[in-house]
Amino acid sequence: xxxxxxxxxxxxxxxxxxxxxxxxxxxxxxxxxxxxxxxxxxxxxxxxxxxxxxxxxxxxxxxxxxxxxxxxxxxxxxxxxxxxxxxxxxxxxxxxxxxxxxxxxxxxxxxxxxxxxxxxxxxxxxxxxxxxxxxxxxxxxxxxxxxxxxxxxxxxxxxxxxxxxxxxxxxxxxxxxxxxxxxxxxxxxxxxxxxxxxxxxxxxxxxxxxxxxxxxxxxxxxxxxxxxxxxxxxxx
Length: 236
Ligand SMILES: Nc1ncnc2c1ncn2[C@@H]1O[C@H](COP(=O)(O)OP(=O)(O)O)[C@@H](O)[C@H]1O
Ligand SMILES: [Mg+2]
Hints:
Number of strands: 7
Number of helices: 7
Distance between the termini: 44 Å
Shape: globular
Number of domains: 2
CATH topology of the largest domain: Rossmann fold
Helix content: 25-40%
Strand order of the largest sheet: 1-7-6-2-5-4-3
Structural class: alpha/beta
CATH superfamily of the largest domain: P-loop containing nucleotide triphosphate hydrolases
Strand content: 15-25%
Oligomer: single chain
Radius of gyration: 19 Å
Bound molecules: adenosine-5'-diphosphate, magnesium ion
């Protein structure tokens, strides 16, 4: 239907369509990452691919690496796939085939808002400026007095239902991580062991996944050592 309509459209109409299409596509930021080709093609992100793939066989994962290598982008990308069900054809990681309950967390309320929430939802009041498509964000509930920080968002899932993503921060303490079962927990930056264990418990009954993306700024802490001594290293 589109080619015919375009064929008969005037230049002015095509230009108007261009504006509309670009605006709509801007809400689909996730399509810019891990593409088939181009300078940022996914074959150049071997470590990310290994990390994603490991989710098919491991409930607990950590992506431990230096600053600015794209850890947060990787975490936000996988979170978006699980929430929406929009797995690309090449995806070899875990797939949930129904809407999920998830958490994404960072160190403090502020860093969670400015990093984790920014990458997933976008700027406060501007859904779709993060990784989750604007068209899929059904509702965003702010935290009371949170200064733009969100409590949770509801996200359309491909099957027709809705996923729920709650935002948390480690500075709320372990008790804030008690609650109902979760399918997916993304921890951006290293969590205290108490928070980590609580999240692991939340994902136990669902056989869910937990992933930490972080730079070990605090040296060999308990969580780091656990992964280093008991974990299995995956390579590209
Ligand atoms: N897969 C990717 N494709 C394109 N750009 C990326 C990718 N991963 C990261 N970037 C860019 O690199 C920068 C750093 O990424 P980020 O995830 O914040 O790093 P880290 O969390 O490891 O410090 C960001 O500006 C981001 O847009
Ligand atoms: Mg980061």
